[in-house]
Amino acid sequence: EGVQGARVSGFRIRADEKAPLAAAVVISDSDLELQDNEIVGAATGVEIRGKSTAVLRANSIQDCRDAGIRISGDSAPWLLYNAILRNGRRTHDPGPGVLIEAPAHPVLIGNTFGDNGGQPVRTPEGMDTAAITNFNFFLAATKLARNRGGAPH
To answer: For 134, phi and psi rounded to 5 degrees?
Structure first.
């Protein structure tokens, strides 16, 4: 929280039933770079909230129960060249690879999405998703969906 000008690189963060994590990494009101990390098995892999301008670059975020990445508040992070795989695969309520909540306004470029439980990216209603669709890679034939009224799709 409140971190400025830092870089976190080269870590492997693994959670499971014996060592659960609500969120593997929480970035709150911070400007930092998260690069070349492997995040596996947390409820949420990375949570970005508050007024954060983080950069997530070349991370592997996989097998998280709820969402790979959750972005909320007035955050404006850049997500660049991350592998966001097999997240949100609960059978009763599938979650997205990336969950964006208004008024957050992230930039997503070059990320690879595959085999997430719900849609690859869940956006708030009214968000223009053309850049997300055009500048990222989607391995499965899944559609980008908007969250309407707070209910999962």
So the answer is: -80, -25
SS3 content of the chain, % helix, strand, coil (to 5): 5, 45, 55
Q: Output the CA–CA distances (angstroms, integers) from residue 107 to 14, 17, 129, 144, in the order listed.
A: 26, 32, 10, 15
Q: Evaluate whether 51 touches 24 at the Cβ level (below 8 Å).
A: no
Query: CA-CA distance, 116 to 142, in Å (whole number)?
Result: 9
CA separation, residue 69 to residues 2, 106, 136 (Å): 19, 11, 15
- Token code pair at residue 41: 């098995």
Within 28-153, where are the H helices?
130-134
pLDDT tens across 80-90, in order? 999 999 999 87
Cβ atoms of residues 99 and 125 within 8 Å:
no
Rounded distance, CA 129 to CA 143, Å? 11
Give the whole-angstrom CA distance, residue 121 versus residue 101: 11
Q: What is the pLDDT of residues 10-35, one digit of tens each?
A: 999 999 888 899 999 999 999 999 99
Q: Report the C-alpha gap between 63 and 17 in whole angstroms.
A: 12
